[in-house]
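ERR on first pass: missing label on line 2. Operator R.T. fixed the label and resubmitted. Corrected input:
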Amino acid sequence: MPKVAVLTGAGISAESGIPTFRGKDGLWKRFKPEELATPEAFFRNPKLVWEWYDYRRQLIARAEPNEGHKILARMERELPDFTLITQNVDGLHQKAGSEKVIELHGNIWKVRCLSCGAEYYDYRAPLPEIPPRCKHCGGLVRPGVVWFGEPLPPEALEQAFNAARESDYFIVVGTSAVVYPAAQLPFVAKEYGATVIEVNPEETPVTRIADLSLREKASTGLKKVYEMLKEHAQG
Ligand code: APR
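pass 2 clean. output:
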């Protein structure tokens, strides 16, 4: 039975109405990452950073998982050896029914207290006060996401690289593959002998090493990939 690993990026949530970061109408066209998605930005102006996350949380709270998310949840149920790795923080994979999700960049619904260190989920959208305070000690909390310049959660990173090395199929969906270390995963998978399949309406640095690169949106491309994998699994 094939070992299948999947890496998703913002593109898989595009069909749920969540803007990507680098596309033509991407978030980094309207906002500056260095002003909103770095530790320095947060300590300089926690209120501004929280206003931006509150805006994104409200957007995500109204979003529903799309067919692409649902196909990946079905793959997890039907394929005996399946690993889902995501760069996304929107939690839409879990909302679609995926149970084991390796979140490399954290989760926008998580908060972490800078005073007592408590980490918990806060699903309120909009937030009643900005910046929000820790429910345990009243201290300042930060979003439980990974900002530029910050280390990724070590356990998630290790699980992701192990999955890439051991996979027979490594499927890359909806990522521009320019942010490291996540972007290294398809190259590691390839180096360890995986068949690399990409689903993206545009070319990316992964395209040149992909065994198959579908110029498709996530829901359409994943339907085709799923059919192929089912055929392979039936031998
Ligand atoms: N289906 C599939 N892919 C799509 C779709 C779609 N419907 N629409 C857009 N895309 C593709 C774009 O072509 C692009 O290659 O999704 C990709 C989105 O790229 P980015 O916006 O760069 O998002 P991502 O690759 O996830 O960014 C990685 O950068 O800003 C940080 O931490 C943030 O996790 C994020 C990381």
